[in-house]
Amino acid sequence: MNFEEFKIHEIRGYIQSMYLVEYTDKLLLLDSGTKLDVKLVREFIEKDLQREFSDLKLVLISHAHPDHSGGAAYFQKLGIAIAGPHNINDWYKGLSGLITYNVDIFLLYMVWSKVKTKASRFQSVYFPRHLKLDYKLYDLDKIPGFEDWQALHTDGHTESDLSFYNGDNKFIYIADNIVRNRKGFLSPYPVVFPEKYRDSLRRYLKMQIQFFAIAHYGIHQISKDEIHKVMDKSGDKPRRHRTSLGKILFSMLFRKSRKKLKSK
Ligand SMILES: [Zn+2]
Fold first, then answer.
1. This prediction's pTM
2. CATH, residue 110
3. Highest averaged pLDDT of the listed ranges 9-23, 228-242, 250-264
4. What's the average model confidence in pLDDT over 154-165?
5. What pLDDT was estimated at residue 91?
6. 29, part of any domain
7. In a domain, 1, yes or no
8. Ligand 1 geometric centre to CA of 184 (Å)
9. Distance, CA 63 to ligand 1 centroid (Å)?
10. HSE (side-chain half, CA atoms, 13 Å) at 203
11. At residue 85, does pLDDT exceed 60?
12. Is 257 inside a domain boundary?
């Protein structure tokens, strides 16, 4: 997608999309993807764009999930700065954080089993649970080196979620805050703070947004009506691992056995 000052490239990663913002003199990556996606992004920059990898000046992280922050430490090892929510490390902290971390990785593989292509292999996506951010981002902060972009706290999906907004072009990257399947737009799993989540969607409604980039997948023009529908359907109760994982596993097994019965 082309804008006056930059182009935006959607890079399809292991289970999610990342968005590379290409300026003539620098590159910005919206979400790191999993650790497996670092190589993919590097190849895209060097082969498809025919540019130096070091043109990538910053990797932004929207939230702690493995498909959004898993690659960050590996970009950093390659000399690229990383920036994300100031409190990102709270999500995987301590014993409950360790459990959440493993469940999040398990869920990543569940998504992978649904979306994988023939070329995609089962590989480890384990990554450091603690990130040393080069820049901690707070609500309304301008993005260092990319002052036309702004971080907005839009929490609820996890404890701490950022969206990245470019007001000049009415473009926003909202990560998982709205996802899309064959039926249309819907709220993500988990939603740990339903009220905060709805406030985040309300925040989008109040803003001038023409283009929503979502991690699963694509850039869309999402109408206010559609956002209201997502909000209405998302419900009042938290959907988190403690309360929902059993149901998810049950429906997965049930679906599999139903498929087997059908194929007999
Ligand atoms: Zn997520």
1. 0.93
2. 3.60.15.10
3. 9-23
4. 97
5. 96
6. yes
7. no
8. 18
9. 7
10. 21
11. yes
12. no
- Give per-residue pLDDT as tens, 187-221: 999 999 999 999 999 999 999 999 999 999 999 99
The number of domains in the chain is 1
> How far is CA 93 from its chain centroid?
20
CA of 33 to the centre of ligand 1 (A): 11
Residue 92 lies in a domain: yes
The alpha carbon torsion through 224, 177, 120, 92 (nearest 10 deg) reads: 180
Percent of the chain with pLDDT over 70: 95
Say how many Å lie between the CA of residue 4 and the centre of ligand 1.
30
CA 178 – ligand 1 centroid, Å: 10
Q: How far is the CA of 26 from the centre of ligand 1 (A)?
A: 27
**Domain with 231 in it:** 7-241
- Tell me the average pLDDT of the chain: 93
